[in-house]
Amino acid sequence: MKMLSLEQELKENAYPGRGIVIGRSADGKKAVTAYFIMGRSSNSRNRIFVVEGEGIRTEAFDPSKLEDPSLIIYAPVRVLGNKTIVTNGDQTDTIYEGMDKQLTFEQSLRCREFEPDAPNYTPRISGIMHVEGGNYNYAMSILKSNNGNPDSCHRYTFAYENPVAGEGHFIHTYMHDGNPLPSFEGEPKLVEIEGDIDTFAGKVWDSLNEENKVSLFVRFINIETGTYETRIINKNH
Which of 46, 62, 86, 95 could disulfide-link to 127, CB 3.0 to 4.6 Å? Predict the structure, then answer.
């Protein structure tokens, strides 16, 4: 698989929707994740990321303008022991509760499917990072409709053991802008992970479409110690 430039992937796509990147820093010492949200409607754009516990949640920037909270207010990031869960919806809670009951990542998502937002049927994308005692692996999942047919849900899980330094995988909700929005296809894209947390966060944020980007979360977790650094960038502030 050809390694892609994350910057180019973002710059060349005006509307990838929401995206998750998971990988390993170039120096090999950090587990890396990024999650971004974009919006085309005023309701989607009226959001910020706020810290909640060891994770984050979305919040209305201007509560008086909040129209429908159902698919836009959720906790994208939660931490369960040595596991960090990153998703584009309230399935974060489903994974957290399932894994807390000893279900696997994949089993936890069995009761969920794509979002009920016809005609897009936005995929649910999820990631899980497991960092323990110097070991690191991660997995990603996408639950999507059968080419826009909501009667059938396609479930894909991709697992990455002992990730290589400077490499990551990128999965996002939409192939590109459109009406209806076309769901992501194929396996997560192999992308370069470059620089320290500020360099990486800056490059991702600057590469997202200026009009559509809303918020970005980036976390670097020390693989030896489990300690982490976080950056949050909100367009509304």
Answer: 86
Residue 120 placed within a domain: yes
Question: What pLDDT sits at residue 42?
Answer: 93
Asked if residue 39 is part of any domain, the answer here is yes
Residue 195 DSSP code = S
User: Tokens in use for 227?
Assistant: 């300690």
Is-contact 19 35, C-beta < 8 A?
A: yes
* Number of domains making up the chain: 1
Please give the residue range of the domain that contains residue 165.
6-234
**C-alpha 59: how far from chain center:** 17
CATH of the domain at 38: 3.60.20.20
* pTM of the predicted model as reported, rounded to 2 decimal places: 0.98
Instruction: Indicate whether 152 belongs to any domain.
Output: yes
Element (H, E) at 88: none
Residue that has been written with the tokens 């996002």 in this structure: 172
Q: Cβ–Cβ contacts within 10 Å for residue 111, how many? A: 10
Over residues 155-183, the mean pLDDT reads 97
Would 1 be classed as within a structural domain? no
Confidence of residue 69 (pLDDT cuts 50, 70, 90): confident
